[in-house]
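LAB NOTEBOOK - FOLDING QUEUE
OPERATOR: T.R.
BATCH SIZE: 2
PURPOSE: Compare the predicted structure-token outputs for two unrelated chains run back to back under identical settings.
PRIORITY: normal
REVIEWER: second-year student, initials M.K.

ITEM 1
FIELD SEQUENCE / FIELD STRUCTURE:
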Amino acid sequence: MDDKEIEKIRYDTIADVYLNINNSNFNQKQPEYINIPNKYYFDLLAKLDRPSKLLEIGSGIGANTKELLNLSFEVCATDISSKSLELIKKRFSHYKNFSTVVADMENLPFNDKSFDVVCVAGSLSYGDNETVMNEIYRVLKKGGFMVALDSLNNNPIYRINRYFNFLRGKRTISTLKRMPDLNLIQKYREKFGCLEIKYFGSLAWTFPFLRIFLSTKMICDFSNWVDAKLNIKASAFKFVMKLQKKIKL
């Protein structure tokens, strides 16, 4: 069984659990300092023209889909897990600006230049990096935007933690190898030509210890200050990037 099939089964299994539980709590609350990059991700999307046709890649069980729908995008949610899409169709059936398609991000079943916006949160490592980049570029209209939120793999502390998650069976080896790094970001810059990027959580590994002494607000303020002042890209935990497809004259 290859890694892609392992991940598909993993997410099918997670979705099955939620499908069989009524009144499930889908929105698991995280500390505010963990959500700083997520907030920036949605802030960037909120600044784009709407209504627009938006493709969400790697939707999973819809952790981010509801916010996209509330922003009034015409959302097409995709995932390799059919069970995940069955779940989010059930969750968001009352929205009219919503559709789902079972799709492999390495071979998107859409025509060229189909979408105004493509977004992806935490899923870039689930496909071959260059294949996924080229597929996103292909389905975007000229002048269209890609907005991505993901982990960065340059910091050895975070790499070690992800390797332990692999040993625990929570990750596949291919997702470790494909985790975005500064080199991949540079390839996106060269492909699209217009890149806006921000890095987060240079000291995220210290947050569990800081919670002993500091309030959530103090941790957020401290983290934002360090990220802004030091701008140490390679040590970041997360990044958010916005790219625009070149308009060739």
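ITEM 2
FIELD SEQUENCE / FIELD STRUCTURE:
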Amino acid sequence: MKLTVGVYGSASGEIPRDVREKVRELGRLIAKRGYYLLTGACPGIPYEAVIGCKQAGGMTVGVSPALNLFEHTTRYDSPAAKFDVIVYTGDGLMGREVTAVRSCDVVIFAGGRSGTLGEFAIAYDEGKTIGVLTGTGGIADHIDEILAMVKKDTGAVLVLDGDPSRLLTRVVRAHRERGPINYIPTGA
């Protein structure tokens, strides 16, 4: 099976040009290396990764909070173009995060605000292999502070790097070296 790489980050707000290009490059690399890209089917940083992935001929999957395409594009004002598959959960913004994060082999975070923080908390508590694209602002540049406050060992493996190529290489290597996750969350 091909690896599924989740990309999460700010769905709205201004995206600086250098961050936009870093995330698009990450998307292109995911495609070129033969992985699937999964996001929360939202605009912003995750969609920039989708654009990059499609530029390189990759496969993209979005996990939507909506019940259908109409609700996805109108109520949630989210894009549908460039996704090969959209899974409509009907679970709302916060509810779809669990499905989206759990559906990934590895997750990568760039930028991010409160929604991204929720996705990070899910990935961390689930013991995922997590990549953080540093230098992209938001929570991505404050992960060390967040973890210092959390003080909880969940079995998650973190890889931080400011270069998309190195980050993807390192996070996939860490995932493969650790093998199947044998951690079963027991609650907070």
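REVIEWER COMMENT (ITEM 2): The mean pLDDT is 95.
FOLLOW-UP: none requested
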